[in-house]
Structures are given as C-alpha cells and as structure tokens.
User: What shape does this take?
Amino acid sequence: MDRTVVAYVIYLLVSIALTIWVARTLSRNGRIFLADVLQGNEKLAEAVNHLLVVGFYLVNLGFVALYLSGDETIEDTRQIFEALSTKLGVVLLVLGVMYLGNVYVLNRIRRRGLMEREQVAPVAPQDWVGA
Assistant: This one.
C-alpha cells in the first residue's frame, strides 16, 4: 500500500475520533449551560444543544475532508509523521477555535439573559410620585 494512502487513513481516523470526542464533550457539558442560558427550559436547551452539535460536526468534518489532500508524495516513514503532525495540528487548532467560539457565543447569550433578568423591577410600581 502506498505510504500516502496510509497517512490519509491515519489522518482521517484520528481527526474523526477527535471531532467526535470534542463534540460529545461540548454536548454533555453544554447542555447544563444552555439550560441556564434559556432560564431552565430543558426541552429548548436540548434542541439548541443538538443543533449546535450538528453544526459543529458539519464544519469540522468538512474542514477535515477539505484538508485531506496534499501536494507532497510521502516516500518514507518520517514523512508520514511530518505530514500527520502538520495536518492533525491544524485540525486540533480548528477544533480549539470552534470550541472557544461556541463558549464565547454561549457566554454572551448568558450575559444578555442575566442583564434582562436584572432589568425587571422586583416589585411592580404602586403609585406615581408628584412633582
């Protein structure tokens, strides 16, 4: 088997495994966060969480597929490791950026919800003050 094909197979297996692991971690821990952001609406939190995970898979697996091809021909084992380290390093960076982007957006939504909750008067007005 051609060494380039071996590198592609290893790259795909590791990239897909990493993408699944990060998505499951985000899903499991994000569900609680989303429930807080959405003021305890568990059903809506679950739906939003699922949509975020699907989008995460689509973006990351699409990137992995686009980044698969390379111009170089791999001739020895050392070049397999070099190609894999470069490709997997970029995939890990993209996963990290996507993760931080998700956390940033969810935190902004959470802050906005907290500010809206604080703007509501604790007691309804009872009378007008004369001038």
